[in-house]
Each structure stands twice: as structure tokens, then as C-alpha cells.
Known about the structure:
This protein has helices spanning 13-30, 38-55, 62-69, 78-93, 102-113, 146-159, 164-178, 185-200, 209-215, 217-230, 234-251, 261-269, 276-283, 288-301, 324-331; strands spanning 129-131, 136-139, 274-275, 305-307, 319-322. It is mostly helical. Strand 1 (129-131) and strand 2 (136-139) form a beta hairpin.
Amino acid sequence: MTAAAAPPFSITTGILSLVEQIGEAIGRAEAAVPGMDFRLRREARVRTVHGSVAIEGNALSEEQVSAILDGKRVLGPPRDVQEVRNAIAAYDRAEDWVPSSESDLLAAHEVLMGGLAQTPGRYRAGEVGVVGPKAVHHIGPPAERVPELMAELLAWLRETREHPLIASSVFHYEFEFIHPFEDGNGRLGRLWQTLILTRWKQLFSHVPVESVVRARQSDYYAAIERSSGAGESTFFIRFMLEAILDAVREGSPQETPHVSPQVERLLRVLDGEMSRREVLEALGLRDRKWLRQAYLGPALKDGLIEMTRPETPSARNQRYRLTPAGRHRRGRTP
């Protein structure tokens, strides 16, 4: 039997470093898993579902997703509500599915897109593309090639000896490149990467990677576009590993740094992207040096905020915003 051809990608030193860092973060996080209470697991599920559907333009909030998870009625666009219900059902059933099984992949699409797509659970018959908020990022291969391409990709996934972190990212990109369904490709690709990772480490069943990807949505599409232009998934692998690392760290109590009262105040007032002057005014401060030393510096160091232009820290139009870890921390601040 001939081995399945490997999709094109390169393993760089940066990728290897990220794999090592994720391994270390998982080691620290796994010790906390037995003590993780239902509330934290539930919160992670809400953020996972919300993150994945929000990337596709779903307008419901995390609070509304939480209410739907509780079986409550929610006022909102019917399609958005249905998308959330389907996503919850799909993630609930994920442990029953085998990542390399085509029948399970089709079943997952049917759950995700039931009542939303014309042919849920069936490969597309027409042409489609990866569409971002402002542009078309990729046009999928001809529809007649989809069954063959998916068979090859699933065979590779079944046989590969690549590290699950890399294999799951390669699969995610190649799945989006093939775009096998008329709709729902993005959310199914993200679900399937989580499924692959969960089969490796159960920890990933409650690590909200999708929420981190949602926070970096423009970078997500850019990584797909760059990889398509390069003809290999290397750029996308790196993007996903960075998102996974942040998600594992964010979900681990042992990764949560001690935060000073000043930084806690900063997290409470930071709204969207704000300039240094706007932050000063929001905090009621006048001393720029004190702002940098006691507020911005520590928050940047702990990964709770980030610059919009990190390559030029002193830029006049520099602004600051919360990272996913910062938003998570603010949500837990009294």
C-alpha cells in the first residue's frame, strides 16, 4: 500500500520552539485539570463556541451563547441562534468522532450545518472561496476534485507521524484550502483541529483556542492567504501554534501572573484600542513616566495588553489593547 503524500510545509526553528513552549505550558496546565471546576469548563465551552461562530459573522454575545447552552430562549437573528445551537451540539459530540474518518467528518458537518446549508453532510457541487470581512482570500479547487483531495488528506492524517500540534495545523490549513463544503468550512476546520488535539491531550477539550483565533481574526485570514501564496502551510502552522500557546497559557491557573492594583485598574479602563493620552485620561493620571512604569510596562510584560504597532514601540500613533489573556483576567476582576 502506497503511503499518502504529505501536504507541503516546512518545519522551521520558530515552529519547533513554539512546539516546545506549548509542551511546557501543557505540563504546567495539566496539574490543574483535576481541580478545574464545572464553572471553568463551562466558561471555556462558551468562549470556544462563541469564538468560532463569531469569526463567521455571528452577532450573538458570549452571554447569549451561555444562555443557549443553558437551554434558555434568546432574542436574536434565527440563523445566528441556530448556528450556536448546532456548534454546541457538535462540540458535545466531538469525542465520538475519529479525526481521520470521512464518515465522521461528514456527520460533523451535518450537525454543524443542519438547517443552515442546503446539503449538510455532503461535499459541495459548485465553486467556493475563503471570504474574510473585506476580501476573498482563496478560491477552492474545482468541486470534482474535492472527494479525491479529501481522501488523500484524511489518509495522510491517519498515517502521519508528525507531532499532533503540527499535524492538526497542517490539516486545518489544507481543509480550508480544499474548502470541501458549500458552507461551514471555517467552523468545521477549527472544530477538527480541536478534535485532533483533544485525541492527543484531553486538556484541549476545554482550551478555547477558537476564542484566541477570533481575537486575531485578521491575522488568521492573513496566515491563510500567505500560505496559499507560498504554496505551503508553514505560515499558517506558526500562526496556529502561537494561538494555541496563548490559549493554553490563558486557560492555566498556574500561568496567571500576579497582577498589581495598577494593572488591574488599567485592564478595567482599557476599551478597544486606546492611545497613551487616552489611557492617561481614563486613569486620571498626569505622569507619563508613572503610566509606563506602573501600568503599561508590567501589563505588556505579562501579556495582558499589546501594542497595535509592536515593531515601532515609540510610534506617534501607537495604541494599546487587551490581549485574550487580558480580557479573560478582566472578566475575573471584581
